[in-house]
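Figure 6 in text form: structure in, sequence out.
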């Protein structure tokens, strides 16, 4: 099982051990790609930083919180509105973003006072919000601003508010995965156990590693309610700050995304004795098995079985319809962390597609091992942290029918005629649940069979342009209409000289306008 060095990376030979190609009758887990290491200089990684992993992935989905970045404005802007973490309080956390907007003078003289002023101003601007999280960034970490002392000062002056401090500057780890760890541990150390939730059921869970992308959490919440289970908190999609302070009262931690949130589950088990159960909300069989496992834990497996039976009968025929049409289609599975292994096998089994490549930007070797062990296709490439050129070379080599990835690699895939499904924020989600899985299959079908993508492969560069197959732009139409008004003009160059455009473009327009004016003169006569 050889390592694979992309041609575009021959000048960076260290990249070879970050890519593995599966040969005939080989187990790809025999030679795992290196992962979760510092980015090799020159590869132009598309990873997120530790701050991004803490704020954007874990923190921001909390719904009733002012999420304030203490640093330059670019940090908070880069982590705002790029995922659809919806909530039932009118999407407050998506509509607004907050930053102290640190400048050069603050770096020189300190920004503690600036931070305090911004926190108070934010609470005054939104008096209905009483909870705030401060996220450290590289600049303010380097100058040593004391976020904890500022938070304590504000809470002493405003006893009705509560503030959580997340020290996760961007440089604190190889990738955003380091930020997942830091915010998990900080939350369990500083906030869990400081609020007592109201218990309404004998069956209580924390739903962990769920971020409510386009309503995923609401789908799963419906299943749990039908089973009579109370969700104490969701970490963190559509999650409430105070509910998350009461995580210690759940009887079971149900974990969805192990890459981003296994840390807090493990700590809750050590500190409070709450067991952890890993589940999967994607795919008919994995979801059915997950609901059954939870049912067995609480002794209510018949309730789980009733849901599985009802939902499968309703949605399986539709899924089979798509499977028949997707069978054999080639897929590059290039998502974030956990979807690498949540999707790798089940999309093959339940949708009939062939996974020809898996990759992860920030996953650990454990993620890669789980993901590629479920990838059956001979010649599949397993890639850790590919850059843009490597991704393009992989697509040229593997010739996938579609890729599942994020917005950045998805956009340059489209440029070479490969459709993509947004694996991070979804196209038309939610994708969890039985209906959601059919919705995912529908989006794959629409992407592959879209006439737009079919047309993108047609080379028209050598086609002869005739009057029949040419087109008229709005600018050209405007010029024609304007030419009607100047049919009596004696100098077309005098007229076109009034255009506010580049001179060489005006030169190109002279023959066209002269021709149009001549036509109008003849019509007038």
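Output sequence:
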């Amino acid at each position: 099982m050889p390592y694979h060095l992309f041609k575009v990376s021959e000048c960076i030979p260290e990249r070879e051990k970050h890519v593995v190609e599966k040969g005939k009758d080989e187990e790809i887990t025999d030679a795992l790609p290196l992962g979760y290491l510092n980015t090799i200089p020159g590869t132009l990684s598309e990873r997120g930083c530790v701050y991004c992993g803490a704020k954007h992935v874990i923190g921001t989905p909390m719904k009733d919180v002012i999420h304030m970045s203490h640093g330059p404005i670019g940090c908070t802007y880069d982590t705002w509105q790029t995922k659809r973490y919806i909530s039932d309080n009118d999407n407050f956390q998506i509509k607004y973003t907050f930053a102290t907007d640190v400048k050069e003078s603050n770096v020189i003289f300190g920004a503690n006072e600036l931070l305090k002023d911004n926190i108070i101003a934010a609470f005054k601007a939104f008096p209905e919000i009483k909870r705030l999280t401060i996220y450290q960034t590289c600049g303010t970490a380097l100058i040593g601003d004391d976020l904890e002392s500022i938070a304590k000062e504000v809470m002493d002056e405003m006893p009705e508010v509560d503030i959580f401090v997340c020290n996760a500057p961007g440089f604190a780890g190889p990738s955003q995965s380091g930020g997942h760890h830091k915010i998990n541990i900080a939350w369990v150390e500083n906030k869990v156990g400081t609020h007592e939730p109201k218990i309404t059921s004998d069956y209580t869970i924390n739903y962990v590693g769920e971020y409510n992308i386009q309503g995923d959490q609401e789908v799963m919440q419906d299943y749990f309610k039908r089973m009579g289970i109370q969700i104490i908190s969701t970490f963190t999609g559509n999650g409430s700050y105070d509910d998350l302070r009461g995580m210690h009262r759940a009887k079971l931690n149900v974990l969805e995304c192990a890459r981003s949130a296994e840390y807090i589950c493990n700590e809750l088990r050590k500190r409070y004795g709450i067991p952890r159960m890993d589940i999967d909300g994607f795919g008919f069989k994995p979801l059915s098995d997950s609901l059954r496992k939870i049912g067995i834990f609480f002794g209510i497996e018949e309730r789980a079985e009733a849901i599985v039976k009802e939902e499968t009968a309703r949605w399986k025929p539709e899924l089979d319809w798509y499977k028949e049409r997707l069978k054999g289609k080639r897929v590059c599975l290039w998502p974030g962390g956990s979807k690498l292994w949540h999707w790798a096998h089940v999309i093959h089994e339940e949708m009939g597609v062939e996974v020809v490549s898996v990759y992860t930007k920030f996953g650990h070797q454990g993620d890669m091992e789980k993901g590629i062990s479920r990838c059956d296709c001979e010649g599949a490439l397993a890639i850790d942290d590919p850059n843009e050129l490597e991704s393009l070379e992989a697509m040229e080599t593997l010739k996938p029918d579609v890729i599942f990835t994020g917005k950045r690699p998805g956009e340059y895939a489209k440029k070479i005629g490969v459709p993509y499904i947004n694996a991070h924020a979804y196209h038309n989600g939610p994708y969890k649940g039985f209906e959601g899985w059919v919705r995912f299959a529908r989006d794959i079908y629409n992407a592959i069979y879209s006439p737009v993508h079919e047309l993108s492969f047609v080379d028209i560069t050598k086609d002869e342009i005739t009057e029949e197959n040419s087109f008229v732009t709005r600018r050209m139409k405007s010029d024609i209409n304007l030419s009607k008004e100047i049919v009596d003009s004696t100098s077309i160059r005098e007229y076109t000289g009034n255009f506010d455009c580049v001179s060489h473009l005006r030169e190109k327009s002279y023959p066209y306008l002269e021709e149009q004016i001549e036509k109008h003169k003849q019509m007038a006569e």
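Caption detail: Residues 486-510 have pLDDT under 50 and may be disordered.
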